[in-house]
Amino acid sequence: MSTQSFAELGLDASVLAAVSAVGYETPSPIQAQAIPILLKGENLLGVAQTGTGKTAAFALPLLSRIDASSNDTQILVLTPTRELAIQVAEAFNTYANHFKNFNVLPIYGGQDFYPQLKALKRGAQVIVGTPGRTLDHLRRGTLKLNNLKAMILDEADEMLRMGFIDDVETIIAETPADCQRALFSATMPAPIRKVAQKYLSNAQEVKIESATRTVERIEQFVLPVYAERKLDALTRILEVEPFDAAIIFVRTKAETVALAEKMAARGHAVSPLNGDINQRQREQTVEDLKRGKKDIIIATDVAARGLDVPRITHVINYDVPYDTEAYIHRVGRTGRAGRTGKAILLVTPRERSWLKTLERATNSPMKDYQLPSPVALQKMREEQFESQLLGFTEDRRLGKAIALLDDIAQRNEMDMAMVAGALAAWMETAQPGALPLEQPAALPVPVPGARRSRDRHHRPGGERRGHRPGFKKGGASRGKPPARGGKRPPRQSDAKR
Ligand code: ADP
Ligand code: MG
Questions:
Q1: Distance from the CA of 374 to the center of ligand 1, in angstroms?
Q2: Is the pTM above the cut of 0.90?
Q3: CA-CA-CA-CA torsion for 155, 160, 162, 166, nearest 10 degrees?
Q4: Statement to judge: residues 66 and 153 lie in one domain
Q5: Collapsing DSSP states into helix, strand and coil, what is residue 375?
Q6: Whose CA is nearest to atom 27 of ligand 1?
Q7: 52 ligand 1 Cβ < 6 A
Q8: What is the pLDDT of residues 143-162, one digit of tens each?
């Protein structure tokens, strides 16, 4: 973090007041560098990883220059996804909290035109839109940019990746020639650089190096696991990790749904998040996660892009990402707003080359993730069962229940231990798994020494591999149990939650 203060940057007083109300102490490096440039009205090319505070880097200076007495659209921000449009619009609202007259409007596809039209007619000083819908409104004449003072391309590389670059260029061409322009991107591929050269004349370039920034506050773990054991591994991780909210990344949309169903069956408050789910539902899901109505989201990369929910303490890479960029974005979903986070990557023997690649990309080593041993897991489950049981000792129905059972015990000449045992067996019959009766089996984990025989055993006719370094030591049966959390155990007895 920079040693500079926000006050030294020359921001408008009411913007400064809002920033201190949100609780930011110092500007992040990209903010410290970008804010003075944008305040001067200059064009800017900003290259910085996800989670470095780019939104405030452009929102704060642009808000400082806005003419609050006019309802004309003065700032246009283009973002690749609807979620991001909403998030950036929310950020503008927060930072403009002390303005008397301020309107920001997110516009994106999948939402009815009519309410957008009404809102556009009323006038919004800031529009945050996805390229497609923004272009629609421009073509219909429902969005006017003739008084635009500044435009921002946020996550430009992602807009390129999603095929929006032509739309983006068309929109830029519609903005006034003297309009201030800034482009933010985590990477600078050639087509983005070309757009910058063409439309951002004399742009100042600000580059925040170090991919490590993103993962600084995030502890990264790796758990080697056989492909067919991933679900078991995930179940145990969620059982022992003291998470607040978790996001689990998978590769396909179908898998988000399938895995969410399995996790729900294990008693978790979980939702899938993918690009096929309708917009309202997706917004609802993010809202539910923010408010704690849901604790787990199973997501694809695209759907979770830019997701900013400070409650997320854990990122679990159930499937390995497609590239290192995706990995950095994924783990960046935790450790938000200065908190710490934990990222756990499941790697099958075939995917172990990812380890080195990711460690290089993030410039930080991954630790071995230790699943608890069956003995430790069993002990934990017994303790949890006990504490749940003790939770009922002051239940208001206790008096009547004891009277009833006492009567039964006396008439049948049983002691109360026998009655309690019978009740417990009944509970277990009604809800298998409600009682920790069986010690769980050890989860077979690929370890270097045992690799060959394990492979043969678990992947009949599977891949042939020699011993290659890459998988580090570690394994279910030798691990120490991680610290226990306050989370209730995801057991079937909890399924009604
Ligand atoms: P990026 O767009 O670079 O991925 P964001 O703008 O989404 O990053 O910011 C990431 C998180 O950091 C947000 O939760 C934001 O509120 C928080 N944040 C931004 N600037 C600061 C700051 N100066 N101090 C503390 N937290 C900040
Ligand atoms: Mg951003």
A1: 41
A2: no
A3: 120
A4: yes
A5: helix
A6: 337
A7: yes
A8: 999 999 999 999 999 999 88
